Amino acid sequence: MKTTEDKLLDDTAIIVSDGCCVQLGTTPALDDVTFRINKGKKVAVVGPNGGGKSTLFNAMAGLVPIVNGSLKINGLSPLEAKGSISYVPQRDLINRNFPLSVKQVVEMGLISKKSLNLFSRNKINSKIKEALENVGLPEKINENINNLSGGQFQRVLIARGLAQDADILLLDEAFSAVDVGAQEDIMSLISDINLDGKTILVATHDLNNLEDKFDEVLCLNRHCCAYGDPSEVLTKEVIEEMYGSHYDMFKYHTSESHRQNDD
């Protein structure tokens, strides 16, 4: 039975896209994309390579302009709402061969939010420690990132996002370049993070068992093919609209079998 708080979360739209259009150069990347995501939801964003998943995340983060329609975060434009979003992009720019510690990488989240001056060093260290505890890596705080596994490094990037205390966490292909065990660990982690009311969007190629992992799914192929409960919207017709007529190929398609870049 839902609590009053759960019901309030369900009724609160935190992301509203109304006919959003994004153009990259002369190429339309998103066309008339419309959906609304309520606060506290865990949402899978699925679709083909070049379908606009990364572009949508970049638009939400205020990194690419919207040429038509609107995209609102807590009622604000993406540029105005930047402090509300933590974004872990698909291709992180950190060079893992550079001698950085886990602590330094997580602290980058605070630097990017320009919040270091607001906290004492003790407060900063406390926020870093809490973020690493949330991803299950407190003992790795002084470890060189070059010594981490792919799954551990992905957790550190998530911790960097969590350190910002943002309402929305965007994870672009969080399961790419990690093994199956690490994928399950990260998915469990995402489920645990969601308990504190954060809204989490995860771009993924894996269409298997989405109804067990996510509250809702956003099906994207430059436009919004469908949005809602995975068990209801992932029909044969919607999957064909996203990927073409190769329904069976993509119904059992996982991130393991896909290593191409998105967008």
What does this protein structure show overall?
The chain is an alpha/beta fold and 263 residues long. The protein has one domain (4-257): P-loop containing nucleotide triphosphate hydrolases (Rossmann fold, 3-Layer(aba) Sandwich), CATH 3.40.50. The chain is 33% helix and 23% strand. It has a six-stranded mixed beta sheet with strand order 5-6-7-3-8-9, with helices on both faces. It has a three-stranded antiparallel beta sheet with strand order 2-1-4, covered by helices on one side. Strand 8 (216-221) and strand 9 (223-228) form a beta hairpin. Helix 3 runs parallel beside helix 5, helix 4 packs across helix 5 (150-162) and helix 5 packs parallel to helix 6 (180-193). The longest helix has 14 residues, at 121-134. Mean pLDDT is 82; it is low at 1-10, 246-250 and 252-262.
